[in-house]
Amino acid sequence: MTLRSKDNEDGSSLLTRRRLTTLTAISAAANYFLVAHSRSLKNTVATLNRERRLNEGDLIEAIEIVDVSGSIRKVHFEGAERPSILYVFSPGCRWSKRNQTNMNFLAMAKSSSYQFLGLSITSEGLGVFVDAHNPPYEIGIGPLGSGGSALSRGGVPQTAAIGTDGKVVRYWMGAYTPGIRHDVESFFGVALASVESD
User: Fold this and answer.
1) What is the share, in percent, of the chain residues with pLDDT greater than 90?
2) d(Cα 94, Cα 97) in Å, to the nearest integer?
3) What is the pLDDT of residue 113?
4) Element of type H or E holding 181
5) Is 90 helix (H, G, I), strand (E, B) or coil?
6) Which residues face 140 on adjacent strands?
């Protein structure tokens, strides 16, 4: 049996308290750093998302696409007869598939007010997609070149309303789930089918 003096126990518990205090301070500092770093990352991601997509007021004078005949051609938005609705999608994207009924409806309901262009970011599966959904508007593949760089970097589906001055009037990123759908309905003055999020 070992006997300890009271002074030795007090010194030991003082040392333990100091260690705990130091560890608590280090832990608090690390947590503060992580929270600050997390906020910084969120701001960076938000900035990148804004930069990689279209914004209202952005100018898209024209873009190059591959049309259904396989020819490369330029589609001009600036100076067009009517405003344009540019719908960017991917045939293999489930959100693009789920949203297609609404795009078909919009194109049929608003074809006298807007020219519609569906733009697939890939040719893979495009024929099957077109056969299955029968879009009532021109379909192309692209965009090619710098004119559509923001479109090709963003996700799908994307919808842009472009004025005859070539400027983006309104932009929606994603399928027309309830939050987006209400804004699209208000802009076009129509009622759309619900596309539910998972």
Assistant:
1) 57
2) 5
3) 97
4) helix 178-188
5) coil
6) 119
Alpha-carbon gap, residue 64 to 146, rounded angstroms: 9
Q: What's the chain's Rg over C-alpha atoms?
A: 28
Chain CA centroid to CA 164, Å:
24
pLDDT of residue 51: 47
- Residue 188, amino acid: F
pLDDT (tens digit, 9 = 90+) per residue, 74-88? 999 999 999 999 999
At 85, which helix (H) or strand (E)? strand 84-89
Confidence of residue 25 (pLDDT cuts 50, 70, 90): low
- Specify whether the CB–CB gap between 96 and 195 falls below 8 A: no
Q: Phi and psi of 116, rounded to 5°?
A: -105, 140
Q: Rounded to the nearest 5°, which phi and psi values hold at 158?
A: -130, 145
Q: How far is CA 25 from CA 15, 16, 178, in A?
A: 15, 14, 46
Measured CA to CA in angstroms, residue 156 lies from 16, 58, 62, 72, 82 at distances of 57, 18, 20, 22, 24
pTM recorded for the entire structure: 0.72
Reduced DSSP (H G I as helix, E B as strand, rest coil) percent helix, strand, coil of the chain, to 5: 45, 20, 35
